[in-house]
Amino acid sequence: MSLFLSILTLTLTLTLFIPTCLSFTVIMSDSGVPSALVDAPQTGFSVNNNGATTDRDEQQAVYDIMKATGNDWATDIPDVCRGRWHGIECMPDKNNVFHVVSLSFGALSDDTAFPTCDPTRSYISPSITKLPHIRTLFFYRCFTDKPQPIPPFLGLMGPTLQTLVLRENGHVGPIPTQLGNLTGLRVLDLHKNNLNGSIPVSFSRFTGLKSLDLSSNKLTGSIPSFAFPELTILDLNQNHLTGSIPTEIGNCGSLMKIDLSRNRLSGVIPDSIGGLTSLILMDLSYNSLSGPIPTSLNNLDSLQALILNGNPISSMIPSTAFDKFKSLMILILSDTDSYGPIPESIARLPNLRILHLDRNRLNGSIPTSFRNVNGLSELRLNDNQLMGPIPFDKEIVWRMRRKLKLENNLGLCYDGRNGFGSDLGSLSDSGIDHCDMPRPGPAQMVQHVATTNEGEPGLANGGISYSMNSTADHPHPPQPLPETSSSSSLSLHQTKSTQMCQTSLHLPLKNTQPPHQRLRRPVSRREETYLSGVI
Ligand SMILES: *[C@@H]1O[C@H](CO)[C@@H](O)[C@H](O)[C@H]1NC(C)=O
Ligand SMILES: *[C@@H]1O[C@H](CO)[C@@H](O)[C@H](O)[C@H]1NC(C)=O
Ligand SMILES: *[C@@H]1O[C@H](CO)[C@@H](O)[C@H](O)[C@H]1NC(C)=O
Ligand SMILES: *[C@@H]1O[C@H](CO)[C@@H](O)[C@H](O)[C@H]1NC(C)=O
């Protein structure tokens, strides 16, 4: 559940970054000139349209549709276009006859007062096909108690229909291929039903499509080779889609959001995606996509969120891949079996806020370029094979707090010169401790150590020797120390953590457990909860 919530949070966050997203979930005003609609300026209706009447056949059709959703009250309204309920929109023709252009049902929010559906007996009346001027049809949570297929007769509505929203209605069965007849569709939203079968190839007839949302269904088969030049939103997340991402996706040149997450897609991410230069969000997480990440993605200089976690990418993170991502705010590569070093260039992304590289096989040290990641508010590098000093300064650590996750690495440590005293705060919760310091640290640091270990022999106040052999401030018994085979002047720490770093890390441990095991701190219950919230 927390997993879901965190996805939700991310979605909401992203929605804020992409204001255009919002308008697609509700009804789009198709003309962009809503003032022509009778429903909007209600006072204008009676003043300007004396003598106007609603087309009789359409009026009867509206009665049928209203009755089929349990809204029998509507039949008492002598003129539906003057009925002034939210959810019906009409427009006059040149003879001042009103035609129904939009019908909406369902309690979408507190602000919308569309007629609700009686879920126990609602269905879509075939009379819907008797509204030749209708552009928008919207049903939200209408048929949930009586699961039913999407009626194929909707295809008879023809090219006038621009927006078809059948959201969270509990529809079952396949998407009727007849919907391909709706060649004027700009918005098709079938989100969160129980639709199965494959995405009809007939959808390729939607040449003017701007938004396609088939997310949260049970669709199988592969993604057809669509090429919708005007498509801005493609959301197929949470289905059972297989096969690879079609190369033709590169022909959807207006795409701003592509979400194919939580499917069973395989193969590589096609190079052609790099041609989608308007992309703002790309979420391909939780599939079976393999690497490497195409370098063509580098061209996506509008991209704000790249989410690829939960795919067996199994390659190095290309060091040049992030040179041009000047808009990137969110980069999620968790659990992608990525290995090798963290490219320095990542830290130079000027707008990066959230970076998750956790649960991979990344090794080496955290690049020093991370010292200045001031914009970063969330960083996960936990569960990798990183070692060496953490380059961030105290302010960054303090600001991120629990959103900085570094635990379960081979040997990260904190370099005292970056501003901390002996109390590492949230860092020590991640099992991080001070690095061995072959060089003298700043006086301030020494001072602090000296005061906390008051009177302790072996602590030179000149800061030369750092032999902290005392267990005075730690109640637990001393841990076994790594055995030094070098004869350097390095002195060993006795700390509450078993994590050592720098030179001592490479040394064999006087312990029967394999070093890797031994260095892993048990994850606390609280952390586990937190971890399960990973996107
Ligand atoms: C779809 O359109 C074709 C003509 O292009 C027509 O013959 C057919 O009856 C239509 N079917 C539906 C269900 O809309
Ligand atoms: C779709 O689901 C129904 C049950 O709701 C089932 O009878 C049918 O076989 C399924 N079709 C496909 C293509 O999976
Ligand atoms: C990182 O791992 C790779 C193999 O995945 C290895 O070749 C390389 O030497 C390692 N680098 C470091 C710094 O440990
Ligand atoms: C550290 O403690 C060990 C035994 O616990 C002792 O043999 C050693 O002399 C101590 N070293 C210093 C520098 O205090």
TrEMBL record:
Q: Which InterPro entries does this one have?
A: Leu-rich_rpt, Leu-rich_rpt_typical-subtyp, LRR_dom_sf, StomDev_PlantInt_Reg
Q: Please state the protein's primary subcellular location.
A: membrane
Under Pfam families, the record lists: LRR_1 (PF00560), LRR_8 (PF13855)
Q: Which GO terms describe its cellular component?
A: plasma membrane
- Gene3D superfamilies named among the record's database cross-references: Ribonuclease Inhibitor
In which compartments does the protein localize? Cell membrane
Where does the signal peptide begin and end?
Answer: 1-23
Keyword Signal assigned: yes
Residue ranges of the region described as Disordered:
459-535
Comp. bias intervals (Polar residues): 500-515
Give the keywords, sorted.
Cell membrane, Leucine-rich repeat, Membrane, Repeat, Signal
- The answer on whether this UniProt entry bears the keyword rRNA processing reads no
Which superkingdom does the taxonomy of this entry point to? Eukaryota
Q: Where is the composition biased (Low complexity)?
A: 482-499
GO BP terms: namely: defense response; response to other organism
Q: Which SUPFAM superfamilies does this entry report, sorted A to Z? A: L domain-like
Q: Tell me what this protein is called.
A: Protein TOO MANY MOUTHS
What organism is this sequence from? Lactuca saligna (Willowleaf lettuce)
